[in-house]
């Protein structure tokens, strides 16, 4: 009963933190002509409610794909349609075709912010609670839930910058919880839902595939074949139900256009400045000038596959629950560090499953969360979110540093000192006119060094440390 009250307080405090963050500006606020990610989400509601389904992913007179064209999977489109219908009922002007671009009244902004809060309440928080209830003892559940809910980078991106990462990460947590409960078919459905909301959940796909495949063959070979067939049917049917409307109304061309929108190779190896390998070496090796896009995409593919193989082997060899979590984090980090077309916000993908490990590895998880938030500082600075950035970072440090060992605390303070120094240089030192991206690259390269160290550390744990199941 006491634990239940504590969990209730944890949830309420985190909802309050989200609401407070939402009082600050969103991405692109008042900045035409594109207005930022907030406008992208609103525009998708406009497009899905005002145009027929067959036109949602196609360039038409009424759907200019260069203006925030839909480039997320069908589940995003369906949810945008539902939210758009509700918005249209209360404020028709907010969903008016073409004329609503940049629409940002106080009431429409409140509606949009509340949809993210509602998504947390309905999807992300219940999934996080089920997860901690599944794999943590009652006395550890409140702190485990706190760490899954109070993730500064996730709060700042979803409730400050403005996105709905909770709608893909929530089903992912649900899938992990169902894996822990030995319910592979329901876990497969939950993961397919996550993948069909945001294609970046492909970062997790290899880990799920390897773990489920290994467990399918834990008995006899013939039984394993039957299990694999069952899993395949579940996945194909779930995908089919979600994608069917686009095949019915758009035919083969409709499906093909949807795939083109989801995987736009032409955008380049990275956008803006991101804390991965390719961006970090770009000042010294001009990859975009040396290699054509197709060659660079192939290089990224090979490098990424190589980075995934060690953890794949370990997960297949020892498909324990803890090993599965290690593999999720390692492989999502591998995709982030080495793959093609990476966004700075994609660091959330390895970070979320990493928080599951807080009770076992508080030093690692705490520093990972801090560096992840730090790596997105240029984006948050552009959005006008400096005060919530520093406030949430300080609150996070105040709640996690007491959990660290003396040695872990020393390492964390050393890393934080480096971040503080970079912040001071960025704020007060004049930027060389010929090097306009110097400070941003310094910040992302510093973050990359940490992320690569985390990747190496987790591989070390998976290969050389005796597993202690908790």
Mean pLDDT, all residues:
93
Helical fraction equals over 70%
Order of helices and strands: HHHHHHHHHHHHHHHHHHHH
- How many β strands by DSSP? 0
Give me the Rg, rounded. Answer: 22 Å
Supply the helix-strand structural class. Answer: mainly alpha
Q: What gross morphology would you assign?
A: globular
What count of helical segments does DSSP give?
20
The amount of beta strand, in percent, is under 5%
Largest sheet, if any? none
Distance between the termini: 23 Å
Spans of 5+ residues with little confidence (pLDDT < 50)?
Answer: none
What would you say about this model in short?
The chain has helices at residues 2-21, 37-50, 74-90, 106-135, 141-149, 152-162, 166-180, 184-197, 205-216, 221-262, 277-281, 287-290, 293-317, 321-338, 348-354, 362-375, 377-383, 386-400, 406-428, 438-464. With 470 residues, it is an all-alpha fold.
Description:
It contains 20 helices and no strands. The longest helix is centred in the middle third of the chain and has 42 residues, at 221-262. The mean pLDDT is 93. The two termini are 23 Å apart. Helix content is 70%, strand content 0%. With 470 residues, the protein is mostly helical.
Topology:
Layout: H1 2-21, H2 37-50, H3 74-90, H4 106-135, H5 141-149, H6 152-162, H7 166-180, H8 184-197, H9 205-216, H10 221-262, H11 277-281, H12 287-290, H13 293-317, H14 321-338, H15 348-354, H16 362-375, H17 377-383, H18 386-400, H19 406-428, H20 438-464
Please tag this protein with its features.
470 residues, mainly alpha, 20 helices
């Amino acid at each position: 009963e006491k634990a239940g009250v504590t969990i209730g307080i944890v949830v309420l405090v985190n909802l309050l933190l989200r609401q407070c963050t939402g009082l600050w500006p969103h991405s692109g606020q008042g900045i035409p002509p594109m207005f930022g990610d907030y406008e992208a989400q609103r525009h998708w509601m406009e497009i899905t409610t005002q145009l027929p389904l067959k036109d949602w992913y196609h360039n038409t007179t009424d759907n200019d794909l260069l203006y925030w064209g839909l480039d997320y999977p069908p589940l995003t489109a369906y949810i945008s349609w539902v939210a758009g219908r509700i918005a249209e009922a209360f404020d028709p002007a907010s969903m008016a075709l073409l004329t609503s671009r940049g629409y940002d009244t106080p009431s429409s902004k409140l509606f949009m912010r509340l949809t993210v809060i509602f998504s947390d309440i309905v999807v992300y928080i219940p999934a996080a609670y089920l997860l901690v209830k599944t794999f943590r003892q009652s006395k550890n559940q409140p702190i485990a839930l706190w760490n899954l809910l109070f993730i500064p980078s996730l709060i700042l991106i979803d409730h400050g910058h403005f996105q709905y990462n909770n709608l893909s990460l929530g089903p992912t947590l649900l899938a992990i919880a169902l894996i822990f409960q030995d319910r592979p078919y329901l876990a497969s459905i939950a993961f397919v839902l996550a993948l069909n909301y945001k294609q970046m959940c492909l970062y997790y796909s290899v880990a799920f595939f390897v773990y489920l495949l290994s467990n399918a063959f834990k008995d006899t070979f013939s039984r394993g074949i039957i299990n694999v067939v069952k899993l395949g049917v579940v996945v194909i049917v779930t995908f089919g139900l979600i994608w069917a409307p686009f095949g019915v109304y758009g035919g083969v061309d409709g499906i093909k256009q949807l795939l083109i929108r989801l995987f736009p190779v032409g955008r380049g190896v990275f956008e803006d400045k991101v804390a991965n390998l390719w961006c970090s070496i770009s000042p010294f090796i001009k990859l975009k000038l040396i290699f054509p896009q197709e060659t660079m995409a192939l290089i990224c593919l090979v490098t990424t596959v190589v980075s995934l193989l060690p953890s794949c082997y370990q997960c297949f060899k020892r498909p324990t629950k803890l090993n599965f979590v290690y593999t999720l984090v390692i492989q999502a980090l591998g995709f982030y560090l080495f793959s093609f077309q990476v966004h700075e916000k994609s660091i959330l993908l390895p970070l979320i499953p990493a928080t599951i490990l807080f009770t076992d590895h508080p030093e690692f998880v705490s520093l990972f969360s801090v560096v992840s938030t730090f790596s997105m500082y240029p984006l948050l600075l552009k959005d006008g979110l400096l005060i919530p950035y520093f406030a949430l970072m300080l609150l996070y440090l105040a709640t996690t540093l007491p959990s660290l060992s003396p040695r872990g605390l020393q390492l964390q303070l050393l890393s934080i000192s480096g971040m503080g120094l970079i912040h001071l240089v960025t704020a007060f030192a004049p930027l060389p006119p010929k090097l306009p991206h110097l400070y941003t690259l310094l910040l992302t390269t510093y973050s990359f060094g940490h992320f690569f160290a985390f990747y190496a550390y987790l591989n070390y744990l998976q290969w050389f440390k005796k597993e202690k199941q908790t």
